[in-house]
Amino acid sequence: MLDQNLSHRLASKIHVVFPEAVHVNALDLVNADDFQIFMFARQNDFKAIYTQYEDFYQHLLVHGQPPKIIWVRTGNCATDTLATVILSNAEIILGFLKDTINDCLEIYQ
Questions:
Q1: Are 36 and 62 within 8 A, CB to CB?
Q2: Who's near 11: CB < 8 A, 6+ residues apart?
Q3: What is the residue-wise DSSP string for 45-69?
Q4: pTM to 2 decimals?
Q5: Which of 3, 30, 66, 101 is most buried, judging by how many CB atoms fall within 10 Å of its CB?
Q6: Distances (CA, A) of 67 to 5, 71, 81
Q7: Consecutive 10-residue averages of pLDDT for the chain (109 residues)
Q8: CA nearest 52: which of 79, 19, 25?
Q9: Helix intervals (H) in the chain
Q10: Omega into 66 within 30° of 0, i.e. cis?
């Protein structure tokens, strides 16, 4: 699940490797706050939330997983750049999603 601060176009750019990627807008969560999104992800079996901000990590610390957090720490950048960063780390991300211990993956540009 891609949080509301990421472009909705990102889902289609990473879909080849991450077919489950869906933006919160496609789930009618446009006006939901971070906690509501976190709980929606949990209740609907989403494995992870992709985000660029710490808020979801804070919810993870308080409530635990699921979902896991993929914290893409690139700062503001173009959607194509963000897609490239995610896709270039695909093997790491896929391994993280299968991992039963770790709950937050930080990716730096």
A1: no
A2: 2, 21, 22, 23, 26
A3: T--EEEESSSHHHHHHHHH-PSSEE
A4: 0.95
A5: 3
A6: 18, 12, 25
A7: 96 97 96 97 98 96 96 94 98 97 94
A8: 79
A9: 9-14, 34-43, 55-63, 79-88, 90-98
A10: yes
